[in-house]
Amino acid sequence: MSGVVVAGAGQAGLQLAASLREAGYDGDVTLVGDEPFAPYQRPPLSKAYLAGKTDAAGLGLRAEGFYADNRVGLRLGTRATAIDRTGRRLILEGGEALSYEHLVLALGARNRPLPVPGFDLAGVRQLRGLADADALKGALADVAAVAVVGAGFIGLEFAAVAAARGLSVTVIEAADRPMARAVSAEMGAFFRAAHEAAGIRFRFGSGVAALEGEGGRVAGLRLSEGGTVPADLVVVGIGVLPNQEIAREAGLAAEDGIRVDAMLATDDPAISAIGDCARFHSPYAAGLTADGTVRIESVQNAIDQGRCLAARLTGRPASYEAVPWFWSDQGPYKLQMAGLAAPGDASVIRGRGEAFSVFRFRHDRLSAVESVNRPADHMIARRLLAARTPLTPEQAADPGLDLKALVA
Ligand code: FAD
Asked: Of the residues 37, 297, 304, which should be mutated to test ligand 1's pocket, given the most ligand atoms within 8 Å of the CB?
């Protein structure tokens, strides 16, 4: 085996393989994935799939025949355990080694565990993969009271599905509002009110001291500030950790993500990293992080990095500069985001009621736009950000200004 070997058979790895073939790459392409499934979409796992509105067959990223038709080898249910950089070999569990000309690390991320007693009780779950979603679906059929730890995107999507089934749902969150790291106070307030109207209770500014059980099964949460929340199912959604260990052990720079340059290459020119596991310098992260690097967990980022790397590997190198964008479906509402906002960025609102956008500004430059029921704003925002079109907070606040005219 030589050619391109991809560790991780998820959204980014699949896109890289598909884009390599589209660009006419003729060498071997092999995806190594530790899950037993061909690459599939994760977003529906906390939305339509969990709600029973789509089945597993609807999750596949490509039709079954794609892999044979495009000579993309799949090694599923197989964990990559080490990289032999000198010999250019990816070592698999069991000791087999795959030789590579180029190795792509598309390892994704895993859920952050909750470091409190009782985390190992039955009935305490997290959601990352199809197996987790199946287990959760089964559990939902059998419980009455659900507690969700973490009011981030996945926690809230799950909470909305559980509440729609008529279950009692309490969300416990350390910050003072939902999605505090990612969206404005204004957008957070809208989603808080929407979830509360659907019957979800929130405990903000709250920590979990322990998960308490009876007979090995979870029965509730003990809060750090005192008091308990009864629950026969606890879903923990407190963020993820990048799967970077095999890179680090092989001597590659990796701290909260495998470090890559503007071309998505690691310190080793024969190894690149893409998707949730990669930390890179982004023009959209200026002023967001101390060193201007980010790790982005989104379908857009996984796809665009897969495409960008495939272009380089087939002789069309370009730096990765795609505009970050994201969506989250929570109950009847679709939140769409473009750009990257920092918690302190200023907010300017366009629209009102259940259809509005929050334009965020960092040092008077547009940094991000969050929209609910204003899909046109979202599309325009992507174009404004990509073209770096100047927009002042005063212009954004002017309902008479036609934003479309700025990107025409
Ligand atoms: P993944 O798709 O996670 O693929 C990585 C693969 O590598 C996994 O199969 C993993 O098991 C495997 N792997 C890890 N280590 C090894 C190893 N050592 N050997 C072999 N294989 C290994 N994004 C959005 O934009 N919008 C959404 O609404 C949205 N909703 C989401 C809902 C859920 C429940 C989840 C979990 C994610 C959601 N995301 C959403 C995020 C999005 O799915 C990810 O950003 C995207 O899947 C990242 O692609 P990836 O290829 O980097 O990682």
From this structure: 297
Residue 347, SS3 per DSSP: strand
**Domain 113-236 falls in which CATH fold?**
FAD/NAD(P)-binding domain (3.50.50)
- Our answer on whether the CB atom of 302 is closer than 6 Å to any ligand 1 atom is yes
17-65 tens-digit pLDDT: 999 999 999 999 999 999 999 999 999 999 999 999 999 999 999 999 9
For the Cβ of 34 lying below 6 angstroms from any atom of ligand 1, the answer is yes
CA-proximal residue: ligand 1, atom 2 (nearest): 10
Answer yes or no: are the C-beta atoms of 4 and 20 closer than 8 Å. yes
Contacts of 110 (CB under 8 A, 6+ apart): 128, 240, 241, 243
Closest ligand 1 atom to 245 CA: 18
Sequence-distant (≥ 6) Cβ neighbours of residue 222 within 8 angstroms? 208, 209, 210, 211, 212, 228
Residues (pLDDT < 50) of the chain are 1
Domain boundaries, the chain: 4-110+240-313, 113-236, 341-407
| Torsion over CA: 20, 21, 27, 31 (sign) | positive
pLDDT tens for each residue of 396-405: 999 999 999 9
Task: Look at the block and give the residue holding tokens 């929209």.
Answer: 371
Sign of dihedral through CA atoms 369, 179, 320, 108? negative
CATH 2.60.120.200 for the 341-407 domain, yes or no:
no
Say yes or no: ipTM exceeds 0.90. yes
Choices 3.50.50.60, 1.10.760.10, 3.30.43.20, 3.90.740.10: CATH for 4-110+240-313 = 3.50.50.60
Give the residue whose CA is nearest to atom 4 of ligand 1.
Answer: 10
Mutation to probe ligand 1, out of 298, 378, 382 (largest number of atoms < 8 A from CB): 298
Does the C-beta of 192 come closer than 6 Å to ligand 1? Answer: no
